[in-house]
Automatic annotation (TrEMBL):
Transmembrane segments: none annotated. Coiled coil: none annotated. InterPro entries: P-loop_NTPase, RecF/RecN/SMC_N. Its main location: cytoplasm. GO terms for molecular function: ATP binding; DNA binding. Pfam families: SMC_N. It is found in: Cytoplasm. It comes from Mycobacterium tuberculosis. This is Chromosome partition protein. Residues 91-175 form the RecF/RecN/SMC N-terminal domain. SUPFAM superfamilies: P-loop containing nucleoside triphosphate hydrolases. Signal peptide: none annotated. One of its GO terms (cellular component) is cytoplasm.
Amino acid sequence: MEERYNFLSTQLEDVKAARKDLLGVVADVDARILQVFNDAFVDVEREFRGVFTALFPGGEGRLRLTEPDDMLTTGIEVEARPPGKKITRLSLLSGGEKALTAVAMLVAIFRARPSPFYIMDEVEAALDDVNLRRLLSLFEQLREQSQIIIITHQKPTMEVADALYGVTMQNDGITAVISQRMRGQQVDQLVTNSS
């Protein structure tokens, strides 16, 4: 009986030591998660303020933690106040303002944590010419460090491209890919030459 007791006591001590080690690992992982999240949040929030101001001159945008006292479960709220408006809730913005705010968030993330390339699908489709030009100037800055692939129907976006790739369906149902280096060429020339 004593032998069994000693065996179980040893096992219990092993389990307690393993539990203590695991709790230490969990605490280390939680601390690392908090540090990485906080660093990323601070960087993205800073970039979002700048990008939002560039896209909405005279406006103000910021990111806010919903539960700053509980960083492991907090959410992030986007506050956006376009120029001349008092609202900050995204649900009250127009479609174009929502689209531009979403793109501002993307660009802020891109700038805070750069990547070798980005792919965007018609992110500028809902924008008017003035807002499109502002966005294109941000794309020009982004492409200094990264490659950008943009799916678009907007002629101004095509005009700032280094290369264009078009996909078209021929009369016989066969898909054709057209490519063209762009720097210094007009989009009108490309369209007429490819027809």
